[in-house]
Description:
This protein has helices spanning 4-24, 28-40, 50-62, 70-83, 90-110, 119-164, 169-179, 185-199, 204-215, 218-233, 237-266, 268-300. The chain contains 12 helices and no strands. Helix 6 (119-164) runs antiparallel to helix 11 (237-266), helix 7 runs antiparallel to helix 8 (185-199) and helix 9 (204-215) runs antiparallel to helix 10. It is flat, with a radius of gyration of 29 Å. Helices cover 81% and strands 0% of the residues. Residues 40-47 have low confidence and may be disordered.
Amino acid sequence: xxLVLPLLAFLFASLLVTAGAMAxxxxxxxxxxxxxxxxxxxxxxxxxxSYRKKVAKTFEKMSRYAPTRASEMGQLRSRLxxxxxxxxxxxxxxxxxxxxxxxxxxxxxxxxxxxxxNVLLALGAGAMGFVLPGMGLARLAAxxxxxxxxxxxxxxxLLVVSVEAGLGLDQAIQRVxxxxxxxxxxxxxxxRLVNLELRAGTGRSDALRNLATRxxxxxxxxxxxxxxxxxxxxxxxxxxxxxxxxxxRTKRRQRAEEATAxxxxxxxxxxxxxxxxxIWVVTIGPAAIRxxxxxFPMANR
Length: 301
């Protein structure tokens, strides 16, 4: 009887590992397509792995039971697009993931797994699990916007060179999107999407405004407004881009100076809470110990 329980535990763990391996293993069709692509010399680089598809399908099914409001869907879609997730199922996957994290966090603390069950603490953990993915998504969107903001001066320089070399604005945007693919992938993807909208028949002004709306970067919005006005009034595109490039570099230098000026204020909190207590312990500690050793015996007399 003593050997039955370890044997059952071993069999249960083995079944779990086998089921996980079978669920995460790529399908035969996907492996054949990848191999054929390698033989043809055209590997499938953008293909999503099979286990990611299965996880996404699971979250998409869970999203049916998640509480959603129509007023939040538009804002959530805009935040997902700003973070770089533009697939149609992105909202459903994110909603299901948020619900799954909340349920797992609630179950870990509501069941006596790591200690005594605490319903109030489990409810708090479930609420945090429901809120934290939204905070993480906002952080991802802010990081992507920062990368686009940093890559914009290089894109403007390439636009100026392309336009002055004789290319039209549409061809210059396409060329810049191709050239930035290695160094600045985020901005390159956005410019390629603008080029696709132009090919599909969207007006240039509408495609540029969609670019500003998708990214949410203020510098890119000002660039789009300048390009729309230049196209409307018929002024020189190259000269406008050059002036805007100089303005953008001035703004970036001002941001760097502002960040440098804030460094002193930001260093106050680490100094007060981390460094000063250690200095006080080192400098005043021996004197305090000596003070206690001398005065306490005198008080006991």
